[in-house]
Amino acid sequence: MGGYVNRDGGGWTELRVHGVSGTPPERMLAHPHVARVAGDAEAGFHRRRWEARQTSADTAQERLEAYSWGALTAGSGQRALWLLLTPFLLVNVAFFALPSAGNRTGRRGHRRTAEALLRLFALSVTLTLVLAVVLVSMDFFGWQCVRSARDCTDRVSWLGFLSWPWLDLPGRRIAVTAALPLAVVGLLWWLANKTWRELEAATVPPAAAEEQDRTPLEDRRMWNGESQVRRLRAAHVAAGFALVGVLLLAPFADRGATQPGAATAAVVVLFGLALALLGLTVVLVCLPNDRPRPDRGGAPGGRRDLYTLLPWLALAVTVLATMVVWQRGVNAPVYDPDAPRSQLPWLTGAVQMLAAAQVVLLLAMLVLLLAGRARARRANSAAEPSPAWFGLATPALMMFALVLAGAFAAGLALAVAHVLGKPAPTDRTPDTIVVPLVYFWGAAMAVPVAATALLLAGVALWFVRRSTDRILRDHIIPAYPTEKIAEALRTPHDPHHAETLRRARRIAAAWSRATLSDVGGRVSGVFVVLLAALTAGGVIGYLVDRSWVYVHARWAVTIGDLLVGGFAAGLLYVGRQAYRNPRFRRTVGVLWDIGTFWPRATHPLAPPCYAERAVPDLIRRIEYLGCTCGGRVLLSCHSQGTVIGAAVVMQLTYAESARVALLTYGSPLRRLYARFFPAYFGPAALRRTGALLAGRPLDVTDHARARWPWRNLYRPSDPIGGWILSEVRSVGTTGEQGPTEGAEQDVDRRIIDPVFARTAGDNCYPATLGHSGYAEDQAYAACVDNLRELREEVSGEGR
User: Fold this and answer.
1) Among 51, 49, 50, 45, which residue's Cα sits nearest to residue 65?
2) Which residues, 6+ apart, have CB-to-CB distance to 688 below 8 Å?
3) Do both 745 and 782 map to the same domain?
4) What single-letter DSSP state applies at residue 254?
5) What is the largest CA-CA distance in the chain?
6) Three-class SS state of 492
7) Strand 62-68 to strand 12-17: parallel, antiparallel, or no bridges (unpaired)?
8) What phi and psi values does residue 13 have, to the nearest 5 degrees?
9) Contacts of 763 by beta carbon, 8 Å cutoff, 6+ apart
10) What is the pLDDT of residues 70-108, one digit of tens each?
11) For the whole model, what pTM was predicted?
12) Does residue 513 sit in the same domain as residue 635?
């Protein structure tokens, strides 16, 4: 077998970075044989491999390289299970949607308060999952299931072990069933540690202090968050273990005073310790996260060990509680086995208190951001594009997480209760399983939420289809300057123009479908408002008459339970299909990759962040190719890869960026990221990215952006990518067979797609490329040449 040509002594390296579809390196390099030259199987750098060295296209002056990071988000179909942790993901993303703190003390204070609220909310979402598992395991299985003449194990054979003689008392049963919530918390703990070591442990080398960072992405320590993530992870895991211990001891704590003996003292002590640990975790997540992130991984000082021990301490207290409860259950039963079924003591109160705390935290965040927005308007009247959802994306994402977590918990509780018997708020029949009323409301609310979502989805599709005629009139005719289309529109019934008109309408329909993401963004704002109204209505209804849903709308509970179960199953199906089918992944994967791009800054148990590995990899590779080997790097990024590329550019030192040019295509930077994450990818940050490449980081208002070594290609038929700095409106064409459009005075270059007419000798029209095939377009090669010239010119001028 031949090998790749390793000539890294200078010249240009075109380093390609793929997007959400996980394009294999063979396709990225347009070559059947590739060799990995750096990295590993999860994320590696590849070059073309040749049988004979003398035939290689990679020379000392030009080489092509591909960075393949798709395995970080793809791989085994088991990773689809991460989708069940979507509420954790939404809370984590909400952190990065917060507005920038700026340099003002007041804004920094508001930012700290908002971050503390978010960390508290993230902890509450973790406890929502733990409470749902405790309800199913310790309450349904251990507390309610086995009763004299009311035994649900008769209809559920796999729970027959609960009727064994050595589990004849409730203390022993809840001690045994406590193993399930402890195992769930332990699994999340293990997964968080495992994914950190495998995917996120790469560190960014420290940069020389050249200028104060102006945007958050310029701070290299953003990707070195091991100590902060460990601290939050320890708090969440300890809180989960401690909550299990509190609910395990709750049935015995209020009876201990009347039962003298060592066991009673142990119950009181352990109950106090579990409560204290639970309160300590709340305090820890509220503390300001002011400790500087290390330039390299690892936590400074000995405080790291204290946080590491916290989960083990909580687990030890809970294990001791299990032993004491086991013994306590042998000595004295704590309830009459023939009495009506009731909830595990304190469980309903814990569910209600947690739901109330989540609503309060959500409202506090909303008020805080509204006050900050009003103050920012008074202080700065500069016109910038409005962020998504009026700058309230953070509370909106928190609300989504709250609704989804509540729906999952309600769906799980009611589904298991149906298996064991009949769910009801009180003991009504021998086969009743008592379920807190809040879960009935959670399931019932799924019906209006689903109906609203379906209605708005239909409205979005109607808007897209309705825009076809407008796009044909206002965009297709100017983009394809030929009299045939205009004449066909003037005489639509002329048979000589029928084929031209059909072709123009098909192109207009393709362009119209590409606007679905823009229309969806506007419609989603309406959905946020309606969801907020529905949530508020549900909370008010629950406070006014808690039993109303169960008494008057039990049908909604039944339908909602089915909807939640179907939604969870659908998430798993979508996840597996996204990892198996690249085309399906391209459709839905962009939303998932938006969430997993961000580090685990607020919720440490969220799905792993691929950028914690990809960004350091690219920085080190650029440092090697551009500085160590004295060459130039053309960073060529597609789709989600453009987000990684922009983050990498903002992380580079001046010496490194002086050897880099950036080519982006199919980029969602302005269409999605700038709107939802303005502090990180807003217009000012994007302009600064170009200025850093040009060597003028202080002058981000430079209007001569055509001299920046950055070009962005986009198509009107692309549903994901779009313009970044300025929308191209001037029209040019290279002829009937391949019209293109561009504005030579700016970064963005628009490519008209598809080609209108058939090629000679072909009976089929050219396909609409949309989001793919940018590297094969003639505009791509032209931009590559242009960027190389610009990079040399700008570097020659010096800094």
Assistant:
1) 45
2) 214, 215, 650, 697, 700
3) yes
4) T
5) 101
6) coil
7) parallel
8) -115, 115
9) none
10) 878 765 555 666 778 889 999 999 999 998 766 555 567
11) 0.88
12) no
